[in-house]
Amino acid sequence: MPVKEALRLAEERELDLVEVAPNSVPPVCKIMDFGKYKYQLAKKHSAGKKIEVKEVKLRPQIGEHDLELKARNIRRFLEDGNKAKVTMFFRGRELVRPDLGMKVFERLLQYLDGKFSIEQPPKMEGKNITMVVAPK
């Protein structure tokens, strides 16, 4: 179909004439709503970039090296654009001293650089303390 006729048809339908395959002979065009098409493409791409919440589990008696390793993992999650949920479990007599758990959270935050924001500060929930860290 000639280009002028295709343009006239597109104008009658109040749509756009979009060139789909410019390198083919003859070039292939479609009559469509280009704004709607761009919106759907953007929506499809944003659906692929969903933020996940990765969970890291700690204990109050964690060693320094293990804490550094957990901090490295959290930093990697944040750099990938995901959130990190840090959960500390208490068992038995450890429940009496939740302040030790809070000190571990403070040490963990020292290992992490300032490239994050605390979405949910450390808070005691039953036998656990949880904190959510998100990338800036």
Structure notes:
With 136 residues, this protein is α+β, with helices and mostly antiparallel strands. The chain has two domains: 3-47, Roll (Ubiquitin-like (UB roll)); 53-135, Translation initiation factor 3 (IF-3), C-terminal domain (Translation Initiation Factor IF3, 2-Layer Sandwich), CATH 3.30.110.10. It has four helices and six strands. It has a four-stranded mixed beta sheet, with helices on one face. It has a two-stranded antiparallel sheet with strand order 1-2. Helix 3 (64-79) packs across helix 4. It is rod-shaped and about 80 Å long. The chain starts with a helix and ends with a strand.
Keywords:
single chain; 136 residues; alpha+beta; Ubiquitin-like (UB roll); Translation Initiation Factor IF3; 31% strand; rod-shaped
What overall form do the CA principal axes indicate? Answer: rod-shaped
Instruction: Give the number of DSSP strands.
Output: 6
Q: Which consecutive residue ranges, at least 5 long each, have pLDDT under 50?
A: none
Distance between the termini: 52 Å
Order of neighbouring strands in the sheet with most strands: 3-4-6-5
- Output mean pLDDT: 89
CATH names the topology of the largest domain as: Translation Initiation Factor IF3
CATH superfamily of the largest domain: Translation initiation factor 3 (IF-3), C-terminal domain
